[in-house]
Amino acid sequence: MAVSVGQVEQLIEKLAPRSWAEDWDNPGLLVGASSQKIEKMLLTLDVTMEVIAEAVEKEAKLIVAHHPLMFKPLKNLRMDNQSALLPLSLFRNGISFYAAHTNLDQSVLAASAVLARVLKLEQTEYLEVTSEENLVKIVTFVPEEHLEDVRKALAYEGVGTAITDGIHSENYVDCFYQTKGEGMFRALDGAEPTIGQIGELTRVEEIKLESIVAEKSLARAVRALHKAHPYEEPAYDLIPLKNKGKKRGYGLIGYLPEPKTLAEIWEQFLATLKENIDDTGSQIFPAAYDFSAVRLAGDLNKKIKKVAIANGSGSSFVQKAIFKGADLYITGDVDYHGVLESLEAGMALGELGHFLSEIPMIQALYEYLRRDKTMQGVEILISSKNKVPWVNRG
């Protein structure tokens, strides 16, 4: 069953709101229309002419990428303008294009989080905290026979689910409180009350249902409340809280389950990563990826306990990794002076390359979209044309 591009947008922004993106970034729907219906989508780290041709061949009418197009405003749409060629080709083929960039890098789907799980890091924290969630208490009043419909609708939008940064928060969902009481109202001419008669004071046994929701999910939660509630005008309270919710940020740092030498941990890490993202038998990733350009700097006999990770361009996080006491810093790409700075501080550095450090995020996004019930009728593919761009001739 087809879904709209807008439904895919909403699903991604449920975890990675566009408001989280940096000011210089350009995420969101960049080509196409939210109303366009699709039955097949293609996920990719980057959009290239090869990827667009792949989408045309596979009849995918939506491309979802990590890296956006059009970071700078286009001044013309000439066919010999490389910056205009990609959006023109998308438009000509009726393909919508959506990007989730720095907002996705701060979400639970971030490649840093995936790589931290590959290493089984413990006691993790962000390399750089960018913000903390604002929390809102949502309270509504529901006739008892409709309670479960409203509660489930709110829970689906994240109400009462893993709200805080507590170490056990992720283990709890459906956290609500309810009390019985009596509601009353008088419906006037023009109303169509579910319960009671026009002009009469109606008293109803109701359940007061309350929980907490992150501010980023509030609008969706309120829409869900209106849709699930039996009343024309449901009563509800939205109460801002001084409590703060989850932190978000870039990169992660944490501890290995047990210390290992740099040689041991690097070999195991690459083997597990390759198994996770290079298993063509799974048909999730339809292409084999080249690991030959991966590099490592540091004493191979050094004992590694604390590891920092930042996907993508990681030079700006070198100092933060050093300051937080990392024995090893793994990133996508880092400049020459960043490598020297790391070694001078006694920190080993592993460079995966930009592509390999971020492609695990595409698998995480694939799994997230595939699990959602609204996407059950949509075929989700990962590009076989988007690969490591470097050719190893060494």
Biggest sheet, open or closed, and with what strands and sense? 8 strands, mixed
Report the end-to-end length measured between terminal Cα atoms: 49 Å
Unreliable segments (pLDDT under 50, ≥5 consecutive)? none
Query: What's the order of the H and E elements?
Result: EHEEEHEHEHHEHEEHEHEEHEHEHE
User: In percent, how much strand structure appears in the residues?
Assistant: 25-35%
In the CATH classification, which architecture of the largest domain applies? 3-Layer(aba) Sandwich
Mean pLDDT: 92
Q: What is the CATH superfamily classification of the largest domain?
A: NIF3 (NGG1p interacting factor 3)-like
Number of strands: 15
Text of the CATH class of the largest domain: Alpha Beta
**CATH third-tier fold name of the largest domain:** Udp-n-acetylmuramoylalanyl-d-glutamate--2,6- Diaminopimelate Ligase, Chain: A, domain 1
Count of structural domains: 3
Shape, please?
Answer: globular
Roughly what percent helix?
Answer: 25-40%
In what order do the strands lie side by side in the largest sheet?
Answer: 8-9-7-10-12-13-14-11
Radius of gyration: 25 Å
Helix/strand/pairing class, anyone?
Answer: alpha/beta
Helical stretch tally: 11
Structural overview:
By secondary structure, this protein is an alpha/beta fold. The protein folds into 3 domains: 3-100 and 361-382, NIF3 (NGG1p interacting factor 3)-like (Udp-n-acetylmuramoylalanyl-d-glutamate--2,6- Diaminopimelate Ligase, Chain: A, domain 1, 3-Layer(aba) Sandwich), CATH 3.40.1390; 111-128 and 248-357, Udp-n-acetylmuramoylalanyl-d-glutamate--2,6- Diaminopimelate Ligase, Chain: A, domain 1 (3-Layer(aba) Sandwich); 131-247, Alpha-Beta Plaits, CATH 3.30.70. Helices cover 29% and strands 31% of the residues. It contains 11 helices and 15 strands. It has helices at residues 5-15, 49-57, 82-92, 102-105, 111-119, 147-156, 218-228, 262-277, 318-323, 336-344, 354-371; strands spanning 3-4, 28-31, 37-38, 40-44, 62-65, 96-99, 122-143, 177-186, 201-214, 236-261, 295-297, 303-313, 328-333, 348-351, 379-382. The chain has an 8-stranded mixed sheet with strand order 8-9-7-10-12-13-14-11, with helices on both faces. Strand 5 (62-65), helix 3 and strand 6 (96-99) form a beta-alpha-beta unit. Helix 5 crosses helix 11 (354-371) and helix 6 (147-156) runs antiparallel to helix 7. It is globular, with a radius of gyration of 25 Å. The model has no long low-confidence stretch (mean pLDDT 92).
